[in-house]
């Protein structure tokens, strides 16, 4: 696939992000460029499958193709199907579609192909990282199928959360593998990842005990990964290494908030408690990890380096400040402050996307200096920068 084709898929992910952010403003009751109630109803799927799903699947497809031959170009069908789902969902919002069926089928197909990518990688290079990410793809497939069949978004959140959490955990094991090589660590984390997937299933069949089980499994997994992650050391570095570490550690903290909500309160399907559980995981954890991994992931996909710039701290700061305001305001049922916090989160994502586009535009073209070839015997680990005083 040419750079032009990859750019088109990235543009679809960007369109999903913009539409999803507009939908977020609609749901917040804030001023939105397109004040469409139907658009607000697809906020979750646009962000999870349209934006993050397309971007992650594209990165995996690029890695699969880079380490194989022309026959491995089939992996690009995953982000293409996800992008098609976005177009079909927006057509439905505009009154041109027929409900969830068409976008749902496209997103379900995308997740099936996404899982297939991990199956292909597993055949080449079996590892705990690939297995965990594959489990995340299975969770994403289940969530897409549930949405297609008309299940309420609130009931699907655990599946979407499992997709995001397991994908990120697998990425951490892949990129910072040396930190997880102590005896039994990888096997234990795989077991904990399986427990998260079991917890997601339990929330559907037995919500009462299922949500506390999911919260407990999530808390154990996140704590285990955070304790072993190299980010605990690179936070003392400078520049991009400190930015990445700060975003990762903050993300782990927010995931623990979601886990605590489910462990202590059980099912949360509406109200401020639901809002906290959902957005601590999707904004605090997932989007924070997007900021953290952008310097690694974007060059692999765009085939040009993404230079570090302090403006990325602005995006990260606004993201976490907005979420903190949103959660605290929700706890006090302060609607205006809650709306302000949510709006700050939207601004944060716009700053992130805008800064990435601007920084890429300022760099020369050509292949990135550092890509990620999945099938290599030993995938490249994140460098551990020199820390002052070490």
Automatic annotation (TrEMBL):
This protein's record includes keyword Membrane: yes
Keyword Transmembrane found: yes
Entry keywords, A to Z: Membrane, Transmembrane, Transmembrane helix
Transmembrane segments: 76-95, 101-121, 128-150, 211-231, 243-265, 277-298, 310-331, 337-361
Region (Disordered): 367-390
Protein name as it appears in the record: Uncharacterized protein
Species the sequence originates in: Actinotalea lenta
């Amino acid at each position: 696939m040419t750079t032009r084709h990859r750019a088109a898929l990235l543009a679809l992910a960007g369109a999903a992000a913009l539409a999803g952010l507009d939908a977020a403003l609609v749901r917040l009751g804030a001023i939105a460029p397109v004040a469409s109630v139907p658009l607000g109803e697809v906020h979750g799927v646009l962000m999870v499958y349209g934006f993050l799903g397309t971007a992650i699947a594209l990165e995996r497809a690029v890695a699969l193709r880079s380490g194989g031959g022309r026959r491995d170009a089939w992996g690009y069908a995953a982000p293409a199907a996800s992008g098609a789902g976005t177009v079909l969902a927006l057509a439905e919002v505009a009154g041109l579609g027929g409900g969830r069926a068409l976008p749902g089928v496209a997103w379900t197909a995308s997740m099936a192909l996404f899982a297939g990518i991990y199956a292909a990688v597993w055949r080449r290079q079996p590892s705990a990282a690939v297995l965990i990410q594959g489990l995340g793809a299975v969770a994403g497939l289940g969530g897409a199928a549930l949405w297609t069949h008309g299940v309420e978004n609130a009931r699907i959140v655990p599946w979407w959360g499992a997709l995001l959490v397991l994908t990120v955990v697998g990425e951490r094991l892949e990129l910072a593998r040396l930190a997880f090589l102590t005896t039994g660590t990888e096997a234990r984390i795989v077991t904990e990842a399986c427990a998260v997937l079991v917890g997601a299933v339990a929330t559907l069949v037995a919500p009462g005990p299922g949500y506390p089980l999911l919260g407990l499994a999530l808390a154990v997994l996140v704590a285990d990964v955070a304790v072993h992650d190299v980010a605990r050391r690179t936070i003392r570095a400078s520049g991009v290494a400190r930015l990445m570490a700060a975003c990762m550690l903050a993300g782990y903290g927010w995931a623990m908030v979601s886990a605590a909500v489910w462990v202590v309160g059980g099912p949360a399907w509406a109200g401020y408690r639901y809002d906290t559980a959902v957005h601590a995981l999707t904004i605090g954890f997932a989007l924070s990890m997007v900021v953290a991994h952008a310097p690694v992931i974007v060059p692999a996909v765009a085939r040009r380096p993404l230079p570090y710039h302090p403006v990325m701290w602005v995006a990260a700061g606004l993201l976490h400040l907005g979420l903190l305001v949103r959660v605290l305001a929700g706890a006090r049922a302060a609607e205006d402050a809650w709306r302000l916090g949510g709006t700050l989160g939207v601004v944060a994502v716009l700053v992130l996307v805008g800064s990435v586009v601007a920084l890429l535009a300022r760099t020369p073209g050509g292949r990135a200096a550092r890509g990620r070839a999945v099938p290599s015997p030993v995938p490249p680990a994140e460098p551990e920068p020199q820390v002052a005083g070490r």
